[in-house]
Amino acid sequence: MRFDLQVIASWVPAGSKVLDLGCGTGSLLEHLVREKHVTGRGIEMDEAKVAKAIGRGLSVVQGDLVAEVMDYPSGFFDVVILSQTLQQVYYPEQVIREMLRVGTRCIVSFPNFSHWRIRSQILFTGRAPVTRELPHEWHDTPNIRVLTLKDFRRFCQEMGFVIEKQVALDTDYRQEHGHALRLFANWRALYGIFLLGKGQ
Amino acid sequence: MSEYIDGQSSRSESVGIVERKFFTLPEGAGPFVLEGGANLSPVTLAYETYGELSPARDNAVLICHALTGDAHVAGYYSDKDPKPGWWDLMVGPGKPIDTSRYFVICSNVLGGCTGSTGPSSINPATGRPYGLEFPVVTIGDMVRAQRLLVEHLGVERLLAAVGGSMGGMQVLEWTVRYPDRIAAAVPLATTPRHTALNIAFHEVARQCIMADVNWNRGAYYDGEKPSTGLAVARMIGHVTYLSDEAMRRKFGRRLYEKEAFSFGFDLEFPDFQVESYLRYQGSKFVERFDANSFIYITKAADYFDLAQQHGGGSLTEAMSRSTCRFLVVSFSSDWLYPTSRSRLLVQAMKKAGLEVSFAEVEAEFGHDAFLLRNERLFELVESFLEHALAAERKRTETAPREVWG
């Protein structure tokens, strides 16, 4: 499994109830169900991916995650996951609030826009950056929000979301092994993963 | 469901020669009390089964048919039978509902006309067919009768119930009425209740039958049948089962066996292909269906209201009665029971905390899509049932065993 998903999985308590928003073909959920005996639910927009996830025996609903998350009762889940999708969401604050309504904790991960390669692309080429993590041209990208680890921390502070854990990764998402960064994370990280709670 | 869906799977892949059987409620059990208050006796259901019930009796899949279907879901009645059952694509060895793994049951609904007790059956009080003396039946009544059949076949708990359209209504009814007796449910192209538009189409169809001079307030069994009315009712149904796009593609404005308009209203040779198609559908239908059954069954579908009947008006309350896992499927071109109807169900199931999967399958042929070859649908049903069986077996393994003596 992808290294970032391994990190996410390590934050999910065994036997908990998990909702994965934008679950794709369900590989993370399947891993959590098999290895951690969680009760899993998923939301995914793409019909083919939904079919594949259902084929894995998962309970997955096809639909828009922003609309679908609202149907769940408050506090129904222990953990709600939004992996590599925040940058595609129109109303991030609303979505995270909903995630924290239906779940006790939520895990959010996204590509870090302040990675040194992105910064140098803008600096030296003067063009909108295209990287492996953000591979789209400016005119055809689903990534409507570009944000950095620092931005997200500040956003959480302003919105009152409590960051309980955070990890910065410089591992390519296709790799299965990697390590967490400690120094100069905002420069060096390709991804950030945050565990949010409601606080007091 | 359509007459054009035939011969789409080859004989060698079929479940083979099958036999229609009958189950009559034992007299000692007393009359069957219908939701409308009337007593019905005797009650017989026509049914077919395929495959073997496992020793643990945990592999039974009930298939619920749509408005005008019957118990003959798969296979052929004889070597010369030109046409297999209505869902032969779905049910058979190696097919999504695999008869080498599951014990498949399909019964003709109460009120039907292909072997089950309905308005064309003999009323024991008069010795003549019931006609309009037949009491009104509901989806709930159909399901209660099915349950007695399922028990009679030695099945305590269904692995799953699967059905599209009105079959989907029965599936939903099963899950809320008998939550302990069903592990999984697949409602396809269905709705928790009819809209005014749905009822309106049914009413127009019923009025076609009732306007036929031969209908005679339902007492036509010893004379001419209201065939014209029934055929027209069927044509209306057909238009709602397809879609604008499907009809455009299938017929366009093509003419029927002619080069130019006839500028007339020839009853045998219409101008347009679509006219000819509808007339064919209508005429095939009257050969096999009873007009009174049609008006009773459409009424049962109109009365169905899951929220009202089981949740005091709340669909979430109704679904909260259920405990089984669901696979809900809608079809992109279905305008009779569009995706928004299925989403209402899914929303209520989510609110009720149920395990639900939902997919809107891309399909061309409108409401009828659930009856046609569709690899995505097949894939979904096949894997869902497989996992349901695995989960059910795990459940019984971990459940406390009965203590004997």
UniProtKB/TrEMBL annotation, chain A:
<dbReference type="Pfam" id="PF07021">
    <property type="entry name" value="MetW"/>
</dbReference>
<dbReference type="InterPro" id="IPR010743">
    <property type="entry name" value="Methionine_synth_MetW"/>
</dbReference>
<protein>
    <submittedName>
        <fullName>Methionine biosynthesis protein MetW</fullName>
    </submittedName>
</protein>
<dbReference type="InterPro" id="IPR029063">
    <property type="entry name" value="SAM-dependent_MTases_sf"/>
</dbReference>
From TrEMBL, chain B:
<keyword id="KW-0963">Cytoplasm</keyword>
<comment type="pathway">
    <text>Amino-acid biosynthesis; L-methionine biosynthesis via de novo pathway; O-acetyl-L-homoserine from L-homoserine: step 1/1.</text>
</comment>
<keyword id="KW-0012">Acyltransferase</keyword>
<feature type="domain" description="AB hydrolase-1">
    <location>
        <begin position="59"/>
        <end position="371"/>
    </location>
</feature>
<feature type="active site">
    <location>
        <position position="334"/>
    </location>
</feature>
<protein>
    <recommendedName>
        <fullName>Homoserine O-acetyltransferase</fullName>
        <ecNumber>2.3.1.31</ecNumber>
    </recommendedName>
</protein>
<dbReference type="Pfam" id="PF00561">
    <property type="entry name" value="Abhydrolase_1"/>
</dbReference>
<keyword id="KW-0808">Transferase</keyword>
<comment type="similarity">
    <text>Belongs to the AB hydrolase superfamily. MetX family.</text>
</comment>
<dbReference type="GO" id="GO:0005737">
    <property type="term" value="C:cytoplasm"/>
</dbReference>
<dbReference type="InterPro" id="IPR008220">
    <property type="entry name" value="HAT_MetX-like"/>
</dbReference>
<dbReference type="GO" id="GO:0009086">
    <property type="term" value="P:methionine biosynthetic process"/>
</dbReference>
<feature type="binding site">
    <location>
        <position position="234"/>
    </location>
    <ligand>
        <name>substrate</name>
    </ligand>
</feature>
<feature type="binding site">
    <location>
        <position position="368"/>
    </location>
    <ligand>
        <name>substrate</name>
    </ligand>
</feature>
<dbReference type="GO" id="GO:0009092">
    <property type="term" value="P:homoserine metabolic process"/>
</dbReference>
<comment type="subunit">
    <text>Homodimer.</text>
</comment>
<keyword id="KW-0028">Amino-acid biosynthesis</keyword>
<dbReference type="InterPro" id="IPR000073">
    <property type="entry name" value="AB_hydrolase_1"/>
</dbReference>
<keyword id="KW-0486">Methionine biosynthesis</keyword>
<dbReference type="InterPro" id="IPR029058">
    <property type="entry name" value="AB_hydrolase_fold"/>
</dbReference>
<feature type="active site">
    <location>
        <position position="367"/>
    </location>
</feature>
<feature type="active site" description="Nucleophile">
    <location>
        <position position="165"/>
    </location>
</feature>
